[in-house]
Write a structure and sequence with these properties.
- Two copies of one chain form a homodimer.
- Chain A is of the alpha/beta class and 386 residues long.
- Chain A is built from 13 helices and 13 strands.
- In chain A, strands 1-2-9-6-5-3-4 form a seven-stranded mixed beta sheet, sandwiched between helices. A two-stranded antiparallel ribbon of chain A has the order 7-8. In chain A, strands 10-13 form a two-stranded antiparallel ribbon.
Amino acid sequence: MFEKLFDINDLKQNEICSTYEIKFGQYTYPYHLVNGISREFVKPLLELEGVDSFVIVCDEKVERLYAQKVKKEIQAYYTCHIISFHCGEPNKNLKVLEQLIEKVLELRITRRTCIVGFGGGICGNMAGMLSAMLFRGIKFVHIPTSLMAMLDSVLSLKQAINSSYGKNLIGFFHTPDMVLANIEFLKTLPKAEIVSGMCEVVKNALTIIPERIEELCNLCNAQSAYSFKEYKFFIDISIKAKMAVMKEDPFEKEQGLILEYGHTIGHAIELASKGSISHGEAVGLGMLCAAEVSHKMGFLTEADVVLHTDLLKKIGAITRIPEELKLESILSVMRFDNKRGYLSSEKGKFHMIILEKIGKPLMNNGSLLTSVPEEIVKHALKKLMD
Amino acid sequence: MFEKLFDINDLKQNEICSTYEIKFGQYTYPYHLVNGISREFVKPLLELEGVDSFVIVCDEKVERLYAQKVKKEIQAYYTCHIISFHCGEPNKNLKVLEQLIEKVLELRITRRTCIVGFGGGICGNMAGMLSAMLFRGIKFVHIPTSLMAMLDSVLSLKQAINSSYGKNLIGFFHTPDMVLANIEFLKTLPKAEIVSGMCEVVKNALTIIPERIEELCNLCNAQSAYSFKEYKFFIDISIKAKMAVMKEDPFEKEQGLILEYGHTIGHAIELASKGSISHGEAVGLGMLCAAEVSHKMGFLTEADVVLHTDLLKKIGAITRIPEELKLESILSVMRFDNKRGYLSSEKGKFHMIILEKIGKPLMNNGSLLTSVPEEIVKHALKKLMD
């Protein structure tokens, strides 16, 4: 399929289907959504101003499948290097970042070099940190290859890596200069990764755009068999949902916190599962727990909780916490969740985002975080374990 | 002297002498300049909003001399920890930063913790990086203890650390929430460090505020014996010079680049000397070279070059490159200077800031960087070596 890149006659203009102008506060960048890999795909890269060379950061699989060919295309105009590393969660840390920084500097790059993060969310975060820290910030482009990256991680200014004390505790904000998304990449993606991304779409629908839930329901299937048009819909509504809450809150500290729905418990489940549960599915379980918590506290109805379960089932995600995961291990991770400190911390309580009703977060004194007693969280977790 | 901290009756109100409102573009922070350590000194810390605890980052000497006492004072109101490390140039790297990050996280800090960088420029940079990267940015206060830190490094949004490929190649911009400077700390400072800081004052005078040169000349002495009033003058004119160029250029990329005068060659001399020449004196030599280059290119007069030399002699700084430093080792560092890439790079040329006349940088197509042939740089370096 990639061979089209080298046959300009094969280029179908309508394959380059949409350009979104992402606006998060004062920070803006273009998001090009394409279907089908052709020479046109890399054209926006070549048109970036003030760039004298490129360094593509990716894993070995992406290098072999796509990046070598993109490099060849770029090299007709600019110096281009590839640095590949194993893009797994255990490598999303400062040690590996330092190795990448040293490797990039070894290439004698300049302030005009553009870093291209070519891969999933982890690759994007590492490339984002890298570009932010080299010479105090150089140009940075995302080429997301997973659904999760396309509709979630590249639609954020957040860059973060893990510490031995928890996920995403280290990081900062850094704006990409461009996103080049290509639905073609999704065709080689394992089903589990599509499901993981779809969980974020469900989250956006339940929290920000409830008016799209019915439409979404009709398109979803547990086989993750989606057409280009369907993927475009998922990305489209996710961009709109994110822009709706981040246009006035680019740093996701106020209303943007709604995007963390399901994450307090979800992160803990993901970490406690040691990676056996994907980020998306862990957030899905986290949303279910949050719905149970809200129901227990008298907000969401039984039917709202069932809506959570149904949507997750529709997209083929798990709705039960696997047996091997112990309640205590999830709770102990939660106790050092990185949302601590948004509110002054109280022992025996967790800070969570819960819904007052579908599409509307519960507000507490202007904050989206609700203090929830550990007992209620335990109760909700147990309901997904029995 | 520090004992005064615990005797509120000894407090002289006039010791708290000035508060400056630092404005670099949209970024602002207060700079409190104090003489004499009393309880009042830590008061602004205790008044910071939204803080639930403090972590002081310093070296062992500062911990012993001052930080333990400041901690005690803070602890009457807030949790306060001290993390000390050896603040030398070889430790200004990502490995040590990672150790600090892990140590701070081990203290179970929150998003409301305030990091206090208590020390010289290296300590300030490491604390700045630390506060910027924890939870994507937490509160950050500078307590500078060296003259260089008081009048240069805390007056910048730049945070940077070294890579094995060069000084300050890794970093980003991060705004402190406050500066608490105290002239008292300078009383225990070695003369060499005072001279180093004074080189930056000379730089500010030669490049931005030539109208203060005469006044400065009258106050300087090679013994570095200065009164509180004189230090206040040096800090005052440095704040004014920095604000003049950074008010419209907070990231020091355009007119703010003038602050890098003497740094292209100076950094190389500092690095090649393996720390035996202080940052300030290295920049002093760098300015002398830049003046020679400008003279050779037909801009500065012989008298302007002599003014550079005279000012440096007045403050007790060296004006000759020590014998043990080889020309080739300086040039090889320069070839990978971190200013590469502001202009597209040309082999055999260096990008330097040179003066057209005293107080006025030479402009090239709107840029402060001039392409200088290696031969002319060599000539200038040799003049300081014979």
